[in-house]
Amino acid sequence: KGGPVEPEQVVKKYLENVEKPSDEDCIICMETLNTASGYSDSTESKTIKPAAVGKLKTCGHVFHQLCMLAMYNNGNKDGSLQCPACKTIYGEKTGIQPKGKMEIFRISQSLPGNQDCGTIHIMYMINPGIQSPEHPTPGKPYTARGFPRHCYLPDNTKGRLVLDLLKLAWSRRLIFTIGVSSTTGESDTVVWNEIHHKTEMNSNITGHGYPDPNYLDNVIAELASQGVTEEGLNM
Ligand code: NAD
Ligand code: ZN
Ligand code: ZN
After folding, report:
1. Does ligand 1 come within 6 angstroms of the Cβ of 137?
2. Which residues belong to any copy of the RING-type domain (predicted)?
3. What predicted TM-score, i.e. pTM, was given to this entire model?
4. Does ligand 1 come within 6 angstroms of the Cβ of 192?
5. DSSP category for residue 164
6. Minimum CA distance residue for ligand 1 atom 36
7. Regarding the domain with residue range 7-90, which homologous superfamily does it belong to in the CATH classification?
């Protein structure tokens, strides 16, 4: 991976210029596409004009280019863009997961509902620390509750695929994030980031346990919605 990319370059890489914009609304600023971007006062750009409109190359959704730039600048500026209309990801999305450790173990015992195989045991360890510039409140401490966190997958073909995808998601800093815990209400703390894990092996007290026949398919879909797919495993 190269060095940091200019935000304008990222926007230009994934948007095609639209010469004659329609009178539809830009869903980022809610102004019509044939008028200036609602972000033209707050977003400085030497190379993108207030009325410039662009179309995302794969999904075809259309926005003001300055609105896209404002949206990008508001995120963690990792060189990727996500369409705000359909969530298509351009480039490789990464998160803001703080540093930590992911470790894998094997257990011979089976999970409820997966009697024909053993179990993969994942352990995540993250310590409290100080927030970096990409975090919600840079310079402020963050807490890390309930670590190490233990998670379980069936040790079969699909479970091992999910394990590989989780490792990729971990390397892209997507498993955890820093924010408000919906369980405890605590802010500036390490929380799960929309990729569900099974944290109970033999019980299902929290609802995050087994049996759950749809779990592997559901988590594969959650990973895909963050851009983590089988394709990425071969790169
Ligand atoms: P959160 O409450 O903000 O929820 C984020 C997502 O994680 C949601 O989708 C939610 O459904 C899911 N989630 C909530 N509780 C979960 C659980 N026990 N196992 C798996 N997924 C869960 O997320 P959070 O604050 O990171 O975690 C929720 C709470 O669970 C926290 O209070 C945490 O300390 C606790 N927890 C403890 C352990 C432990 O081993 N002691 C392990 C996991 C979670
Ligand atoms: Zn706009
Ligand atoms: Zn789209």
Report:
1. no
2. 26-87
3. 0.90
4. yes
5. H
6. 146
7. Zinc/RING finger domain, C3HC4 (zinc finger) (3.30.40.10)
Give dist(CA 103, CA 42) in Å, integer: 44
- Specify the CATH architecture of the domain 100-233: 2-Layer Sandwich (3.30)
Return the structure tokens found at 37: 């971007």
The 10 Å Cβ neighbour count of residue 200 is 17
Question: How far lies 110's CA from each of 61, 114, 156, 165, 201, in Å?
Answer: 46, 6, 11, 21, 9
> Amino acid identity of 118?
G
How far is 149 from 126, CA to CA, in rounded Å?
9
What interface predicted TM-score (ipTM) does this complex get?
Answer: 0.91
Q: Are 133 and 140 in contact (CB under 8 A)?
A: no
**Helix, strand, coil distribution of the chain in percent, nearest 5:** 20, 25, 60
Check if the beta carbon of residue 126 is closer than 8 Å to that of residue 190. yes
> What is the CA(88)–ligand 2 centre distance, in A?
18
Cβ 206 under 6 angstroms from ligand 1: yes
pLDDT, tens only, 117-158:
999 999 999 999 999 999 999 999 999 999 999 999 999 999
Residues paired with 181 in a beta bridge:
none
Residue ranges of domains in the chain:
7-90, 100-233
Q: What is the pLDDT of residue 206?
A: 96
Q: What mean pLDDT do residues 27-33 have? A: 97
Distance 62 CA to ligand 3 centre (A): 8
Residue range 215-227: average pLDDT?
A: 97
